[in-house]
Design brief:
Blueprint lengths: L18 H9 L4 H33 L8 H11 L13 H4 L14 H6 L1 H46 L3 H5 L3 H8 L1 H34 L1 H6 L4 H38 L1 H6 L3 H54 L4 H42 L39 E9 L5 E10 L4 E5 L6 H8 L7 E6 L2 E2 L5 H6 L1 E5 L9 H6 L7 H10 L3 H5 L18 H13 L5 E5 L7 H11 L8 E5 L3 H5 L3 E6 L2 E6 L1 H5 L4 H13 L1
Parallel strand pairs: 3-8, 3-9, 6-7, 7-8
Antiparallel strand pairs: 1-2, 1-4, 4-5, 9-10
Length: 661
C-alpha cells in the first residue's frame, strides 16, 4: 500500500483554486437559468422601487406645485411615450392640451399643460403609484421564488453528492472520521450554503442594483445634493469590509466548536450503555459543559462584534440622513431645490442606506458560507475507492483494460466457484504498523476454515483484505484463480456475505433488517434465513413478529439476538462464501452448533465459511483450522491434527477443556 496516512484524513484548505465557487456552481446545475431569472427579476423590482418616489416628487412639485416635471433617464422615455414629446399631451394616453385645461381658467406661461387636468384627476396618480407597487411586488415574488427554488435544488444536490461521496470513501478514511464533524459538514454547512444562495447573494445583487440606479438618478437631478448624500457612504462600506474580515475568523471558530459539541452528543448517545455501565454520567456532563462553555464564549464574542457593527453603522446611517436633510433645507431656502426633490432624495437614501449597512453583515455571512463551502470541499477532495487497482511489477492474471467496467458472468461471478488462495500476502497499515507477513494458504469451495489466534494477530485483517477494504502490501489473493484486484469491489462484496461481531442493525423492523441483505428476497427466502440463524422461533414470540421494531442499533434485542439477526441478513444473500468474524460469541454453544449444521451443505459444492472464533466447539467442527500468531501462520490442519501438536491451539484446547471440566 503506497498511500500515506495523510491520504485518509481531512486536510485544511485542500481544495483546488476556485474549488468553492465550482462547488456552488455545480450544485446549481439544472436550475441555473431559474436562478439567473431571479436575479433579473430582482433588478426589475429595484427599478420599480425607485419609480414610485418619482411619482411622489412629480405630484408635490408639478401637480400640487407649479414646477415643470423633470424625470430621471430611466422613466423619461416611457413618460414621453405615454404623455407626448414634451409631456404636455398626446401620446398613447391621448390627453391633449385642449382637454387638459382646467375648468377654472387659462394656464400661466410656461406652466405644465397637463397640471390642471391631473389636479382634477388625482386618481390617475394613485393608479400609477399602485401600478408601480404591484409591479414591484410581482417581480419581488418572481425573484424570491426563483432564488429559493434554485437554492433548495442546489442544497439537495450538495447533500446527495456529499452522502454519495462518503459512501464511496475508503474504509481507512471512515475509520479516522469524526462523525460529529462530518455530520455538520453534510447538514448545517449545506444549509449555510443554501441560505447564501437564497438571501446573501441576492442581497449583494440588490445592493449593487440599488446603488447603480439610485446615484445616477440622484446625480442627474441634483449633483450637489447627491454629493452631500454620499459623504458617509464610503465610511460605511469600509467599515463593513473591515468588519467582514474580522468576523470571518470568529464565525470559523464558532463553527468548529459547534462541530465538537455535536460530536460529543453523538458519541455519548451511541455509547450510552458504556456510560451508564461505568456510571460516567457526571464525567460526560462535565465534558459536554466544558465544550458548551467554549462554544458559548465564541458565540458571545460574535454577539459583541455584531452589536458593535450595528451600533456604529446605525450612527453613520443617521448621520447621512441628517446631512441630506440639512443640505436639502438649505438649498430649498436658496431656491435651488424643491420639496419634492428633497422628499425623493430622503426616500432614496433610506432605500440605499439599509442595504449598504447590511452589506457588512452580508459579507460576514458570505464569509461563513466561504468557510462552509471550504469544509464541504475538504470532504469532497478525499479520494474515493477505485474499482481497479494494479500493483506494478506483479503478474496479475487476465487483467482487464484500465478503466473498463468488469461484468460478472452470473450472479456472484464465476470466480466464486473456485478456491480461495492467499499467496505470500503481506500487509501493513498506512501508519506503518505491520500486521500480516507471508500469509499463504488455499481454501477449497465449500470448505469450512476456522481462524484462531491471540488478539492483534491479524485475524480480522484477513477478512478486510478479502473484501478489499485494504489492499495487500505485497502478495496476491485469488478467487477461482482470479486476482481479486481485477474484480470490481462492489461485485466482490456482493459475492461474499460478512457477519461481524458487532453487527450494525438499523432502527427498522426485523423484516426490513433481514431484507437489507437482499432487497428482492421473498417471504420464504426471508423465513428460511431466519430459521438457519436459529432466530425464527424467537421472532414468533415477539408481539409484532417480523414487524417488530428493533430500535436504533438494535438496542431492544439481546446481544445473541442481534448477532443472529445479522447472520440472517447475511444468509438471505445466499452467497457461496460466508465469513463469520467472531459473530457467534454471544450465542450459546448449542445454538452455535445448530446454526453451523443448518448452513452446511447448502448449494452446489456447499457454502464455504471462514470462521473467526475462540470457542473450541466452533473451531473443532471446521474442516481445517488456521492458527495466526504475530501476523504469521504457525499451524494449519484439522482439530485432531493440531491438538496432537505442541503450540497455541493445543494450549487453547487444554485450557477450555479444563474450564469445561
Amino acid at each position: 500500500m503506497s498511500e500515506s496516512i495523510e491520504t485518509y484524513v481531512i486536510k485544511k484548505n485542500s481544495w483546488g483554486r476556485f474549488g468553492r465557487i465550482g462547488l456552488l456552481w455545480d450544485a446549481l446545475k439544472g436550475r441555473r437559468s431559474l436562478y439567473l431569472l431571479g436575479i433579473a427579476a430582482l433588478a426589475m423590482e429595484t427599478l420599480f422601487s425607485f419609480t414610485s418616489p418619482i411619482i411622489v416628487k412629480t405630484t408635490i412639485d408639478s401637480i400640487i406645485g407649479k414646477e415643470r416635471p423633470v424625470l430621471p433617464f430611466f422613466v423619461d422615455g416611457l413618460a414621453r411615450t405615454l404623455l407626448g414629446p414634451e409631456l404636455g399631451g398626446g401620446g398613447i394616453i391621448g390627453i391633449t392640451p385642449a382637454n387638459g385645461v382646467g375648468a377654472n381658467g387659462a394656464l400661466e406661461d410656461g406652466a405644465w399643460l397637463l397640471r390642471p387636468w391631473l389636479r382634477e384627476n388625482l386618481w390617475v396618480v394613485a393608479v400609477a403609484f399602485i401600478a408601480c407597487i404591484l409591479c414591484q411586488s410581482a417581480f419581488s415574488f418572481v425573484a424570491s421564488y426563483s432564488a429559493n427554488n434554485a437554492a433548495e435544488h442546489a442544497a439537495k444536490r450538495m447533500r446527495d453528492r456529499l452522502y454519495a461521496h462518503v459512501q464511496n470513501l475508503p474504509y481507512e478514511t471512515l475509520l479516522r472520521s469524526q462523525s460529529g464533524d462530518w455530520f455538520q459538514r453534510c447538514t448545517s454547512d449545506v444549509d449555510t450554503s443554501r441560505r447564501f444562495l437564497c438571501f446573501e447573494f441576492m442581497e449583494i445583487c440588490r445592493t449593487l442594483f440599488l446603488v447603480s440606479i439610485a446615484y445616477p438618478v440622484m446625480f442627474s437631478l441634483s449633483p450637489s445634493l447627491t454629493l452631500w448624500g454620499s459623504l458617509v457612504v464610503p465610511l460605511i462600506i469600509l467599515y463593513s469590509v473591515g468588519f467582514h474580515l474580522i468576523v470571518e475568523r470568529v464565525f470559523l471558530g464558532a463553527d468548529e466548536r459547534e462541530a465538537v459539541l455535536s460530536g460529543i452528543i453523538q458519541e455519548n448517545v451511541n455509547g450510552v450503555r458504556v456510560v451508564r455501565a461505568f456510571a460516567r454520567q457526571d464525567y460526560e456532563m462535565n465534558r459536554f459543559s466544558l465544550a458548551n462553555d467554549r462554544y458559548r464564549d465564541q458565540v458571545f464574542k460574535l454577539i459583541v462584534w455584531l452589536g458593535l457593527f450595528w451600533g456604529v453603522s446605525s450612527f453613520l446611517g443617521l448621520l447621512q440622513i441628517a446631512l441630506v436633510t440639512g443640505a436639502g433645507l438649505f438649498m430649498m431656502a436658496e431656491g435651488s431645490a424643491t420639496l419634492g426633490l428633497l422628499v425623493m432624495f430622503l426616500n432614496y437614501e433610506h432605500k440605499t442606506l439599509w442595504p449598504i449597512r447590511m452589506f457588512g453583515r452580508v459579507l460576514a455571512d458570505t464569509g461563513k458560507t466561504k468557510v462552509a463551502l471550504g469544509r464541504m470541499a475538504e470532504l469532497l477532495v478525499l479520494p474515493e475507492e477505485e474499482d481497479l487497482e494494479f500493483v506494478e511489477g506483479e503478474d496479475i492474471p487476465f487483467p482487464p483494460e484500465k478503466g473498463r467496467e468488469w461484468v460478472a458472468d452470473d450472479e456472484g461471478g464465476d470466480w466464486l466457484k473456485g478456491p480461495l488462495e492467499f499467496d505470500h500476502v503481506c500487509f501493513s497499515y498506512p501508519d506503518g504498523t505491520k500486521v500480516l507477513e507471508d500469509i499463504t494458504f488455499r481454501m477449497e469451495r465449500g470448505e469450512h476454515l476456522a481462524v484462531v489466534g491471540p488478539t492483534g494477530s491479524g485475524k480480522s485483517t484477513l477478512v478486510l483484505l478479502l473484501l478489499r477494504l485494504y489492499e495487500p502490501t505485497s502478495g496476491c489473493i485469488r478467487l477461482g484463480g482470479r486476482d481479486i484486484r481485477t474484480i470490481p469491489k462492489r461485485e466482490l462484496r456482493r459475492g461474499i456475505a460478512l457477519v461481524l461481531q458487532e453487527g450494525f442493525l438499523f432502527g427498522k423492523t426485523i423484516r426490513e433488517n433481514i431484507r437489507l441483505g437482499r432487497m428482492d428476497a421473498g417471504e420464504e427466502m426471508l423465513l428460511g434465513a431466519a430459521r438457519k440463524a436459529a432466530l425464527h422461533k424467537v421472532i414468533e414470540e415477539f408481539p409484532g413478529g417480523y414487524d417488530t421494531m428493533v430500535g436504533e442499533r438494535g438496542v431492544t434485542l439481546s446481544g445473541g439476538q442481534r448477532q443472529r439477526l445479522s447472520l440472517a441478513r447475511a444468509l438471505v444473500r445466499q452467497s457461496p462464501l460466508l465469513v463469520l468474524d467472531d459473530s457467534m460469541s454471544a450465542v450459546d454453544t448449542e445454538t452455535d452448533r445448530l446454526i453451523r449444521e443448518s448452513i452446511e451443505g447448502d448449494g452446489e459444492g456447499g457454502t464455504g465459511m471462514i470462521i473467526i472464533a475462540h470457542r473450541l466447539t466452533t473451531l473443532a467442527s471446521a474442516d481445517r483450522i488456521l492458527v495466526l500468531e504475530g501476523g504469521r501462520i504457525t499451524a494449519l490442519g484439522s482439530h485432531a491434527e493440531l491438538v496432537g501438536k505442541p503450540g497455541l491451539y493445543r494450549r487453547l484446547a487444554e485450557l477450555q477443556s479444563a474450564v469445561g471440566a
